Amino acid sequence: MIFCSAPRSWLRPPMPEPVPAAPADPPERAEFERSPSDIGTIGAVEAPLARGERLFGNIAFRRALVLIGIAVLWEAYGRWLHDSLLFPTFTDTLRVFVQGCLSGSLSGRILTSLRVLLIGYVAGVALAGMLTTLAISTRTGNDILTVLTAMFNPLPAIALLPLALIWFGLGTFSIVFVLIHGVLWAVVLNTSAGFRAVPETLRMSGRNVGLSGVRYVTQILMPAASASILAGLKIGWAFAWRTLIAAELVFGVSSRSGGLGWYIFQAREELETAKVFAGLFAVILIGLLVESVIFRAIEARTVRRWGMQR
Description:
Blueprint lengths: L7 H4 L39 H6 L2 H23 L8 H14 L3 H31 L1 H14 L8 H8 L3 H25 L3 H9 L4 H12 L1 H25 L9 H10 L3 H29 L9
Helix pairs in contact: 4-13, 5-6, 5-8, 5-11, 5-12, 7-8, 8-11, 9-10, 11-12, 11-13, 12-13
């Protein structure tokens, strides 16, 4: 006979599940009372800043200190080297610069360069605006702009100067043609990147109110992409300055009168190093004025006012 026995676990009664312990009550906090203190003993909540803190809080003062430091180092190195043919001091350069501006030999060259520079810069910015508007409005315009940017943006502007001389001759139009090339692609790339970075919510809001074409670009995309557009304008200005000075160093502006680059070239040929530094100082000074006055005013009235940049 075969006997089967059930496992012992079946014979045991089920164990009751453990009951979770009740959470302990939080300890009672003792009550206390405080009498209000006299605020007259606290002192001034807002104390005026010291004069040094106010000065260093001014951005113009801090940048002026940087410029003064550069001028002091320039003067010290020139005096230590003691060779005006190789490296004139800052005071000698400033003296030649003031004399050239008062006599008209330098100020006339500066005005000639600025006139040509403004023509090329304004034409390049206007053409960039038209191309970018066309690229944003239509798919075909976007394809055309993408191909043109890939082709001509890597091409140095000064490399087109010999071709411009063949087409337009030795004159202002040759320099303006080269300047347009130098300004155009920098402005186009930054503006296009800014337009592509506009949030879709703003795009949809413009389409919902019926904006399209030029109105859509000027009222929706341009304010939203103002920071990128301003960066492109600054880069285009710098490229225009470089291209202009490089072109004038070789060919001048026209067959009758030269610009600031030609002034530097002639001073170098005559071994007047102080005049060379005075011409370079004029380029730097104009760049600082344009950056600190014109572009800063545009930034304050557009980008910062619209809250697009801190």
